Amino acid sequence: MLSEEKNRLLTEVGPDKPMGQYLRRYWHPIAGTSEFDDQAVKPVRILGEDLVLYKDLSGNYGLVDRHCPHRNADMSFGFVEKCGLRCSYHGWQYEASGQCIHQPFEEVADPSARMRKNTAIKAYPVQEKAGLLWAYMGPQPAPLLPDWELFHAKNGFAQAVFAEIPCNWFQCQENSIDPVHFEWTHNNWTTRLAGEEGPYVPTHQKLAFDEFEHGFIYRRLRGSETEDNVMWTTGRVTLWPNGFFLGHHFEWRVPIDDTHTLSVLWVFSLVPSEQGDYVQDKIPSWYGPVRDADGRWITSHVANQDFAVWVGQGPITDRTREKLGQSDKGIVQMRRRFFEDIEAMQAGEEPKGLIRDPAKNHCVPLPSACASEVASGLTRAELDAHPLLGPYLRDFFGQAGQPRAVTEAYERAIGQKVRGATFFKVHGSGAEAAAGQAATEAAASAAPAMPAVPGR
Ligand code: FES
Ligand SMILES: [Fe+2]
Fold it and tell me: Which residue out of 64, 67, 68 has the highest number of ligand 1 atoms within 8 Å of its CB and is therefore the one to mutate?
């Protein structure tokens, strides 16, 4: 349980709030590069600020204020030039740094262009990495954008998957240090959604939470699992400050504002080694729906099950009303680290986990339960039998709504059809979605029995 004041400290992300200032010290993924294949300008809202993300005619990205400093025209109606973005109202043009570089009439009226030199739009740096566009909205000097090892993995098909979730980011991130929810939100709920009353998977027996440089590691044992299980020897990474790393994929919960979160999944699916040296020419990105055509929450896919429970906790969950147990030890540790680190930042210290040394920012490894498989690759049969990586051959179970073009690109990569793909009817009724899940479970039955939905 927390006081209202402490709950606000964790959840408020505006530029004048402590957590808002803290999160601005980190790079955040805000869009997919493939979104700019057929558009140049996109309005975005990040950390409570309305902004415009663009790709100019030279291929450079920029992120500027939604409104022009001249008379507040909407810069999302602007058009890109060789250098930067031009307002479509009176033609003022801004480079990526925010500096105004052209004021057509003002420069006729005053060839010394004094006014232009003194005009700038709010602007933030943008970098491209791993098919994602990342923004940094904090004070300079910016830290380095982390170069995670998985971004360098070979012979795989990566995709970036987004969704807008109507609730506060922190309850989403608490899910990154909540091992017991897998058993209920993903395994047992899936069984019930499929119309079965059981059996339920074995319950958790033991949990451990340890802090490290880039976040926390949680470890768990379920049923009769023993301490040589990879979920105990390696565990999972609660990636600081708002991510989750599961060996073959990342998740980030990027605050849009206090009551909305951009969910970002970056998923790497191994391609069978029979396909030779597979090189992906482009990482696709897509946005999935969170509700079906009838307005009901989609619960057929892993991330959608998470979204439903997070939103169910309320727009900003009321932590004065919670009752924490032993399973929440990691959540308590994580909150404490945020409180302490925010205080340290206010005292002028460096926030946790920032990377500033270029020599340390190449292929940065994180603990991974499938590191050797990702590094050395798997044959089709090995992949098919792998409990964590194999289910992708049967369906993209991560999140509902994968576009057909992405499914087909993946099928070309792996050299076979995705067997379960047609089972999911995202825009169908809840019953259809549940049936789809059941069908996929049936298709996945060759995989080890636990977990029913591929466990994380
Ligand atoms: S409002 Fe943008 S140039 Fe006038
Ligand atoms: Fe989950």
Answer: 68
Q: In ligand 1, which atom is closest to the CA atom of 73? A: 1
User: 373: which 2 tokens?
Assistant: 């498989």
pLDDT of residue 456: 45
Q: How far is the CA of 229 from the centre of ligand 2 (A)?
A: 20
Cα–Cα distance measured from residue 123 to residue 137, given in angstroms and rounded to the nearest whole number: 9
Ligand nearest to the CA of 182: 2
Ion ligand 2 residues within 5 Å by Cβ: 306
**256 and 290 share one domain:** yes
Task: Report the nearest atom of ligand 1 relative to the CA of 75.
Answer: 2
Residue 432 pLDDT class (50, 70, 90 cuts) = very low
29, amino acid identity: P
- 175 and 127 in a common domain: no
* Ligand 1 surroundings by CB, under 6 angstroms: 68, 70-71, 73, 87, 89-92
Gap from CA of 78 to ligand 2 centroid (Å): 39
Do 36 and 22 meet the contact criterion of CB atoms below 8 Å apart? no
Q: 154 and 132, same structural domain?
A: no
pTM here?
0.92
Specify the ligand 1 atom closest to the Cα of 72: 1
Q: Final residue of a domain: which of 136, 169, 192? A: 136
Q: Assess whether 87 and 169 both reside in one domain.
A: no
Q: What is the largest CA-CA distance in the chain?
A: 80
End position of a domain, from candidates 107, 136, 165: 136
Residues 76 and 189 in one domain: no
> How does pLDDT run across 278-331, given as a tens digit for each residue?
999 999 999 999 999 999 999 999 999 999 999 999 999 999 999 999 999 999
Which listed ligand is nearest to 173 at the C-alpha?
A: 2
Residue 375 sits in the same domain as residue 332: yes
- For ligand 1, what atom is nearest to the CA of residue 91? 3
Q: What is the rounded CA–CA span in Å between residue 10 and residue 5?
A: 9
The parent domain of residue 99 ranges over 27-136
With contact defined as beta carbons under 8 Å apart, do 114 and 24 qualify?
Answer: no
At CA 326, angle to CA 18 and CA 223, rounded to 5?
130
Q: Within this chain, do residues 329 and 257 fall inside the same structural domain, yes or no?
A: yes
Q: What is the CATH number of the domain that holds 118?
A: 2.102.10.10
